[in-house]
Design a protein that fits this description.
The model is unreliable at 1-59 (pLDDT under 50). This protein has a domain at 247-381: Rossmann fold (3-Layer(aba) Sandwich), CATH 3.40.50.2300. It has 450 residues and is α/β, with parallel strands linked by helices. Helix 3 packs across helix 4 (141-154), helix 4 (141-154) packs parallel to helix 12 (388-400) and helix 7 (247-261) packs across helix 8 (277-289). It has 13 helices and 15 strands. A 6-stranded mixed sheet has the order 10-9-11-12-13-15, covered by helices on one side. The chain has a 5-stranded mixed sheet with strand order 3-5-4-6-7, with helices on both faces. The longest helix has 15 residues, at 247-261.
């Protein structure tokens, strides 16, 4: 999921919980009611609507959330770009994507770049809302693009007059990200979004923020502790909400890809930082739903541990995969969240018959697949998920507008098989997920050397 971590962090324990809420209970079929080619069968949409084309997002407040100043009339092309051909999308997610259809003038682009690179910035609207952005990571493409998604989303709300940013750069000292959240409280931000890499260690700071009237929403399934685990926080009770995929369903989707593609043989399983919510959530369900004919060469120590920890760093992913192949040269597949990490890990590997189940969609892996031109090499992926920070912003702004926010905002997913068209040689930079909603002109300024 998150590329090139330059510092390692210690063990955290986060994972999936399932909650419900009124707003997320309303779903709207997102444009393409075409059938998705998926390894997990999505449930039928409860409400269908054919979104009309939108020319601007800020001016339109159509649909189920109009009373909160939001439109669910998202551009079908943007919905499919972000998520793939999913048949059902929660309204809050549609509302966040609707605002991504921005007609960016140069002044807005300049302001976005200013805020993206700042510790604190004024939007120029004079709005009283102060957005806090507390990231446990930083320093890499995935995190920085996700931050830009949030900046661009915030600029669609004139109520937001100030943005305040902190990133802990994967500090090995939990006091750093804890201090970042405490700083946000002292600064008097209106709300906080971010990714809690240190998980449970942030629990007291997050609860203190909530007690001070500053709601917290993590994205990318940044759960703060296992349900039932000592010290675990409960979304909807201890913090406002959680944005992310159903991690168990994601793990089951990975299993179907591996079960169908590998059939019989050995696979390797990789994850990010030890015990993080994203890896632990899908790995637990993935390992439970693999066929009996599939052997995992690196099983975790126990059900509460992640395996194949790479810290989402490409060089570590290479070392982990190299170690697996040195003792198990006939590995027939890998499961991982992070495409670019596997691109590095497999760069010098001669691939025969292999199936990969991954989450993100960096071009590096896909273009390498095209160059190999191997009919026995198959890759299935879901989506990069950068835009989920937009959903966190929108949920916070809807809360301010009086909406009841669900404890869990589930981002739907499908698994798609890579084809030659998934390698885009004109991509601004191959390490940015193609599913990101940051416009190419902005990406070109963020990464001028490509």
């Amino acid at each position: 999921m998150k590329p090139r971590v330059f510092a390692l962090i210690a063990v955290m324990a986060l994972v999936l919980a399932a909650c419900t809420g009124d707003v997320a209970g309303t779903t709207t079929t997102a444009a393409a009611e075409e059938e998705a080619t998926t390894t997990a069968a999505p449930s039928e949409a409860t409400t269908t609507a054919a979104p009309a084309e939108a020319t601007t997002t800020a001016a339109s407040t159509e649909g189920a959330l109009s009373e909160y100043g939001e439109s669910t009339d998202a551009d079908p092309a943007l919905v499919e770009k972000a998520l793939g051909p999913v048949p059902e999308v929660p309204d809050i997610v549609l509302a966040s994507i609707a605002r991504a259809e921005q007609d960016l003038d140069q002044a807005t682009i300049d302001k976005a770049l200013e805020c993206w690179s700042a510790v604190e910035c004024e939007t120029g609207t004079g709005g009283e809302v102060i957005m806090g952005y507390a990231d446990g990571g930083g320093l890499n493409v995935w995190r920085q693009v996700t931050r830009m998604e949030a900046v661009l989303q915030a600029l669609t709300y004139p109520e937001i007059g100030t943005m305040v940013f902190r990133d802990a750069q994967w500090s090995t000292d939990p006091a750093v990200p804890i201090g970042d959240i405490n700083y946000m409280v002292e600064r008097g931000v209106t709300f906080i979004i971010g990714y809690p890499d240190w998980g449970l260690a942030l629990g007291d700071a997050i609860k203190a923020a909530e007690a001070a009237g500053i709601p917290y929403v993590p994205y990318s399934a940044g759960w703060v502790g296992l349900p039932g685990q000592d010290g675990a926080l409960v979304p909807g009770t201890d913090y406002l909400s959680i944005v992310g995929e159903d991690l168990c369903a994601l793990g089951e989707s990975f299993s179907q890809v591996i079960n169908d593609g590998v059939g019989e043989g050995s696979i390797g399983v990789l994850g990010g930082t030890p015990g993080n919510a994203l890896s632990l959530g899908w790995q637990q369900c993935h390992l439970q739903t693999l066929a009996d004919t599939i052997e995992v060469v690196n099983p975790p120590a126990d059900e509460n541990s992640t395996t194949g920890d790479t810290y989402w760093a490409n060089d570590i992913a290479r070392d982990v995969v190299s170690g697996m192949l040195s003792t198990n040269p006939d590995i027939g597949g890998f499961s991982y969240e992070y495409a670019d990490g596997l691109a590095t890990a497999l760069a010098d590997v001669e691939i025969g018959t292999m199936t990969l189940a991954i989450r993100t969609d960096e071009q590096t892996l896909f273009c390498d697949w095209v160059e190999r031109d191997n009919p026995d090499y198959h890759i299935w992926y879901s989506a990069g998920g950068n835009f989920q920070s937009r959903t966190a912003v929108t949920a916070q702004m809807m809360k301010l507008a009086g909406a009841e926010i669900p404890a869990e905002i589930v981002v739907p997913h499908v698994m798609r098989e890579v084809t030659a068209s998934d390698c885009n040689p004109d991509r601004v930079t191959p390490t940015v997920s193609n599913t990101s909603l940051v416009p190419d002109p902005v990406l070109a300024l963020m990464y001028p050397e490509g």
